[in-house]
Design brief:
This protein has 2 helices and no strands. By secondary structure, it is an all-alpha fold.
Length: 64
């Protein structure tokens, strides 16, 4: 059976390299999610109002 090149085996080899390859996409996703939340907060807070901003902030906790 041939191995797929995109498969990363975390049970053998250098642990640190595999862990970094595993964690980088997760960290990038978190940064993008924070950018989305920041933009959403700025737009809603500036153009809609305080009540809508409170709703966005409380919904973010449920979303994460």
């Amino acid at each position: 059976m041939s191995k797929n090149k995109s498969t990363i085996d975390l049970t053998s080899g250098r642990i640190s390299l595999g862990l970094v390859k595993f964690a980088l996409p997760l960290m990038a996703g978190n940064v993008l999610q924070q950018c989305y939340n920041l933009t959403d907060t700025l737009v809603v807070g500036r153009f809609i109002g305080k009540n809508a901003l409170a709703a966005v902030c409380s919904a973010y906790t449920l979303m994460t």
